[in-house]
């Protein structure tokens, strides 16, 4: 994407080309007008800047890569493999200026003159730009982390997703490691700005953050997880190169990585944590109410108020609890709802004896789901996925499971990541719902299909509106009932526990960040209404404290997808095809919920017209 200086240069070129040229002039449009075209006006050639949707998209995608060396490196930019992002205020200011310019250019284009395909590209591009613009005034760089993820453990993911095939891959990785001090320093400056303006993380999450940073910064250089690539070299490398690269990696660890983490740990413990906000809700910071309202719209992709979301959550909690009570009666448990929750959290039959057994159970469930996929989906992705454990260095505060995307071009499968830390907090009856959500037909299926879209701009292959993606993941959990994945009433109770988890999120997130609830009030919703393990409840509530608004995406998105499915079933009757409906939802990639509704209404009309 062009820098501001390049944009100024383009303007100068346009000004130089604005004078008419003789119709018979032997001058090349490519020479004089690199960003424009020559047209004939009253018999004279005139150079004018011509904008188009394709040009705008190309500019935006270049900006994305130039501003994110991680993405650029994954796309083959060798120089970018040596860098980490620039998160300085000046860089962010330039980014916001470009976004504003892109929005102006987008608004000036006549949508009605575009093809149907381009109208979809135009609408989705507008969605992306408006989302960026809506959050820009809130200076989110002041809190650059959640309870389990942030700039301090980015390298855990980067190192695992970087290809190491040639000597330069290792040299570039070592150079990237030396960037940590600068990268951490810029984040510390942003966080100090947060301290000065009263916009900080909650002190409730800081002990876990400090412990994680301390752990990552400890130990001998050669035992560090970031050093792991230097322990495995291709056989084609000479002994001399292997030794040189190993020494290079060790030097980067000793002189850059470990000192950067020790310095960051000191900053977090001595400077940031004492200044962290004392309330859990983001509305307690200056401008927090307005910020949270913007986050609700951002994560739900709908024009909803926090109070509306809260009421939907309360109704869903009551409905799901009634279904849970029906299962308790089905298994003939003669005790109260609370006593059944204690039983399900503590009985040994519900827990795996080892990490390996937990992963094997997840793999067995995943393969059973795979066997049902063609019956429910007309289009399946080519990219496969695997199952791995959450890395030890982040597991204690990490969520129970997550999906890490793959990349077919880089030869990297997707991964369903299972947390094996503290096995007594990982009940087996939750595994079917978790696997359906993170693997297929949930996140892997949806993301892989999007990556494999053809004849669309690159940004659409990775576009992930939270309400769509997480709503689809929760929809996939319930779809598992129709697929025959839940084999016991306890597993179905586990599914309802996960649905209750997402319903309570609506209540808890708005409760803490809008209504001023305490952490204890938030945790009560999960303890009283679900069989979630106490450790999970603790880490999940810390996640909602640290990531306001995101937790709303799941239930709001799922409810919309079910609403659209029931609408289609009622309108089409015997003509309704569930396989075709699922393809209609997924085969344009991620979209905001209002555009999804327009898509499905158009699909229904097409099916009726057949």
Task: Write out key terms for the chains shown.
25 helices; three-stranded mixed sheet; 610 residues; disordered N terminus; single chain; mainly alpha; 4 domains; two-stranded antiparallel sheet
3D structure, described in words:
With 610 residues, the protein is mainly alpha-helical. It has four domains: 4-50, no CATH class; 55-137, no CATH class; 139-278, no CATH class; 292-558, no CATH class. Helices cover 60% and strands 4% of the residues. The chain is built from 25 helices and five strands. It has helices at residues 4-17, 29-32, 53-67, 69-74, 89-107, 116-135, 154-161, 167-177, 180-197, 206-216, 239-275, 288-300, 306-330, 337-346, 355-376, 431-438, 443-451, 458-461, 466-483, 489-513, 519-529, 534-546, 553-572, 578-586, 593-609; strands at 36-41, 44-49, 385-389, 401-404, 414-418. The strands form two sheets. The protein has a three-stranded mixed beta sheet with strand order 3-5-4, with helices on one face. Strands 1-2 form a two-stranded antiparallel ribbon. Strand 1 (36-41) and strand 2 (44-49) form a beta hairpin. Helix 21 (519-529) crosses helix 22 (534-546) and helix 23 packs parallel to helix 25 (593-609). It is globular. 38% of the residues are buried. Residues 1-41 have low confidence and may be disordered.
């Amino acid at each position: 994407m062009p820098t501001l200086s390049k944009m100024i240069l383009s303007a100068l070129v346009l000004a130089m080309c604005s004078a008419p040229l003789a119709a018979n002039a032997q001058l090349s449009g490519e020479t004089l007008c690199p960003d424009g075209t020559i047209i004939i006006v009253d018999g004279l050639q005139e150079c004018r800047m011509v904008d188009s949707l394709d040009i705008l998209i190309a500019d935006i995608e270049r900006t994305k890569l130039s501003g994110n060396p991680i993405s650029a490196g994954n796309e083959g930019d060798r120089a970018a493999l040596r860098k980490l992002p620039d998160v300085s205020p000046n860089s962010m200011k330039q980014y916001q200026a470009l976004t504003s310019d892109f929005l102006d250019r987008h608004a000036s284009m006549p949508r009605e003159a575009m093809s149907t395909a381009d109208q979809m590209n135009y609408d989705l591009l507008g969605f992306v730009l408006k989302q960026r613009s809506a959050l820009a005034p809130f200076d989110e760089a002041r809190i650059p982390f959640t309870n389990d993820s942030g700039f301090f453990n980015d390298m855990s993911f980067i190192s695992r997703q970087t290809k190491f095939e040639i000597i330069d891959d290792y040299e570039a990785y070592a150079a990237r490691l030396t960037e940590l001090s600068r990268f951490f320093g810029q984040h510390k400056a942003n966080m100090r700005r947060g301290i000065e303006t009263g916009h900080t993380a909650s002190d409730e999450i800081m002990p876990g953050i400090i412990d994680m940073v301390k752990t990552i910064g400890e130990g001998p250089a050669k035992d560090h997880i970031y050093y792991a690539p230097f322990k495995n070299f291709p056989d084609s490398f000479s002994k001399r190169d292997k030794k040189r690269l190993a020494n290079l990696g060790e030097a980067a660890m000793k002189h850059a990585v470990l000192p950067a983490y020790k310095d960051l740990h000191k900053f977090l413990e001595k400077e940031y944590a004492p200044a962290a906000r004392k309330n859990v809700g983001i509305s307690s910071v200056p401008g927090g109410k307005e910020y949270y309202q913007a986050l609700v719209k951002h994560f739900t992709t709908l024009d909803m108020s926090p109070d509306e979301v809260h009421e939907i959550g309360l109704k869903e909690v009551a409905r799901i609890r009634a279904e849970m009570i029906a299962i308790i009666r089905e298994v003939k448990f003669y005790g109260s709802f609370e006593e059944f929750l204690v039983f399900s959290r503590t009985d040994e039959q519900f827990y795996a004896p080892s990490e390996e057994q937990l992963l094997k159970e997840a793999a067995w469930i995943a393969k059973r789901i795979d066997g049902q996929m063609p019956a429910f989906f007309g289009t399946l992705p080519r990219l496969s996925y695997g199952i791995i454990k959450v890395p030890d260095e982040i597991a204690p505060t990490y969520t129970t499971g997550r999906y890490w995307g793959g990349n077919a071009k880089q030869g990297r499968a997707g991964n369903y990541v299972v947390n094996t830390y503290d096995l007594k907090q990982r009940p087996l009856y939750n595994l079917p719902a978790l696997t359906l959500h993170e693997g297929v037909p949930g996140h892997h299926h949806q993301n892989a299909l999007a990556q494999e879209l053809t004849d669309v701009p690159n940004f659409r292959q990775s576009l992930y509106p939270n309400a769509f993606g997480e709503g689809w993941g929760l929809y996939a959990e319930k779809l598992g009932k129709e697929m025959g994945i839940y084999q016991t009433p306890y597993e179905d109770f586990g599914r309802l526990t996960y649905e209750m988890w997402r319903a309570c999120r609506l209540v808890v997130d708005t409760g803490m960040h809008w209504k001023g609830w305490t952490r204890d009030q938030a945790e009560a919703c999960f303890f009283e209404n679900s069989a979630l393990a106490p450790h999970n409840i603790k880490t999940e509530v810390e996640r909602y404290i640290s990531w306001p608004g995101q937790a709303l995406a799941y239930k709001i998105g799922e409810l919309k997808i079910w609403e659209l499915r029931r609408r289609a079933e009622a309108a089409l009757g015997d003509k309704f095809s569930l396989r075709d409906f699922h393809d209609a939802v997924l085969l344009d990639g991620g979209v905001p919920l209002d555009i999804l509704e327009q898509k499905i209404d158009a699909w229904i009309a097409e099916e009726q017209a057949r």
